[in-house]
Amino acid sequence: MKLTNSEKAMLEGQEGEAVQKAMEMLVRYGEALGAEKFIDTTNVGGYMIANLEQYKRFNSFDGAFSEMCMDSDVTVKLPPVKVSSCQFETSMDPEYYKLAGKSDEEYELYKSNIDYLANLGIQVMCTCTPYQVGNVPVKGEHCAWMESSAVVYINSVLGARTNCEGRESTTSAMLTGKIPYWGLHITENRYGTHLIHVDEQPITMEDWGLLGYYVGKTVLDKIPVLDGIKKTPTRDMLKHFGAAAASAGGIELYHIPGITSDANTVEEAFGGRTPIEELNYGVNEKLNAYNLLNSIGDNENVDFIMLGCPHYSIEQVWDLCKKLEGKHVKEGVSFWVFTPQSIKDLANRNGFQKTIEDFGGLLMKDCCPAIGRFKPRGSSVMATDSAKQGHYLPNITGIEAWYGSVDDCVEAAVTGKWGGKFN
After folding, report:
1. Domain 5-187 maps to which CATH number in 3.30.460, 3.30.230, 3.30.499, 2.40.170?
2. Of 43, 71, 80, 155, which is the most exposed, with the fewest CB atoms less than 10 Å away?
3. Mean pLDDT for the chain?
4. Can you give the pLDDT at residue 371?
5. pTM exceeding the 0.85 threshold for the entire prediction
6. Which distant-in-sequence residues (6+ apart) come within 8 Å of 104 by Cβ?
7. pLDDT in tens, 14-52
């Protein structure tokens, strides 16, 4: 790779051993990718949470993260981060850690870990949606983010530029302000590859999840361009769509001309190129996506409702609470809603948390079952409004899953039965 003088200085250790190890990792990474140079970044989102086993191997966070997050063969003391950096969602809600099957020892370690990150200057947002709580990249801004649903959102909706990074590259970027210049940082790599004619219009949040799941399963990790969307979706619909597309197929960027950031026309989205393939999304494709997402569900006796993947916005919490008025969850059913800490604080201020708790549910923060690899103890059948969670959690925990609308999920919480239907 071609290095600037300042990059060479970091690689030679002039800014300390930790920065040197970070640059060594980034150079290996960049050369493996075929990147010719680095690009500056001032916006990094990563994951620096150690579990008990990892921590005990080194008996320090510096030791654990030197190896796990910088691929260093020696322990180095991590200095404060060089650029603005945030922590994505974590493995537990510290308020409800026992519900996630975590021990007191794991809880104490988690608290120490969060303090460690804060002392490094890392913003402990602890959410998969930093763009909902203050970290909103602008068009053209070069970022280094993890978390597939966040990556596809800021690339597509906001027009920022990032690849889907890992904990090693993001931690190293935090200490250096550098990331390899490749992939979606480069304009030529951001043009569409597949044209999808959307005949079956997505109206509801559930519809957008199904469209995203179809797109991900169909074009895999390419760049779809959606033509024919007649009604501008909300931010939450685009969030839901991107999360489904990323989990189903690895999509990191999509274009909806005139709506998302990079293109106003189909021609602009393709950069004058011819699509690799043209596809049509109609009622049959929608039905196939619905059936595929619900193929893991067999038992209609639901005992776990999971909402908030990606983390709910305050608008989603508000909308949910209107559906809960005058109702109560059935005994034996766990009803969990996930949101960032700052949105939970706002929900509490507005009385929404009380509404959820009066219904018999919990408003949780900082985590999600997929990242934390947990579910309510003894639960075996989940209902969710998240295509992403419906895709991942059965594979992670062995739980059965049903996918549907928020109304379907609330009804399942009240009755203990899944009654969702294709619409």
Report:
1. 3.30.499
2. 80
3. 96
4. 86
5. yes
6. none
7. 999 999 999 999 999 999 999 999 999 999 999 999 999
Bridge-based pairing of strands 304-307 and 381-384 is parallel
Burial environment of residue 69 by CB neighbours within 10 A (0 to 12, 13 to 18, 19 or more): buried
pLDDT digits (tens, 9 = 90+) for 209-256: 999 999 999 999 999 999 999 999 999 999 999 999 999 999 999 999
Indicate the SS3 state at residue 38. Answer: strand
Asked if 316 and 236 count as a contact pair (C-beta separation under 8 A), the reply is yes
CA distance 364 to 111: 16
Q: What is the mean pLDDT of residues 305-319?
A: 97
- Reduced 3-state DSSP string for 135-175: CCCCCCCECEECCHHHHHHHHHHHCCECCECCHHHHHHHHH
Burial tier of 232 (Cβ tally within 10 Å: 0-12, 13-18, 19+): exposed
Contact present, 169 and 190 (Cβ < 8 Å): no
Asked if pLDDT for residue 373 goes beyond 90, the answer is: no
Look up tokens 């899944």; give the residue.
418
Q: Which residue has the tokens 């619900």?
A: 294
